[in-house]
Amino acid sequence: MTFEDAANATIHQTMDQGRQAAEKAGQALKDGYGAARQYVEEKGLDFDVREFARREPWLAIAAAFTIGYFAARLIRRVS
User: Fold this and answer.
1) How far is CA 73 from CA 23, 40, 41, in A?
2) How far apart are CA 35 and CA 22, in angstroms?
3) Is the pLDDT of residue 78 over 80?
């Protein structure tokens, strides 16, 4: 096995691990979204995100940033 073959094998293995981590993180996000949606439906809460973003744009931006930050941390821990 040449150095090039070993490097290619390592690259492919790393890419496969990255794909698997992304799939796990995606599934975790889907599961979390489904659980949150089910909870909201069970409790009868009605929350319109679009209307909230129109009324409170800065708060919506801060919430989006916070959710993105914690989602990135979650993905980093899963991988």
Assistant:
1) 15, 25, 28
2) 20
3) no
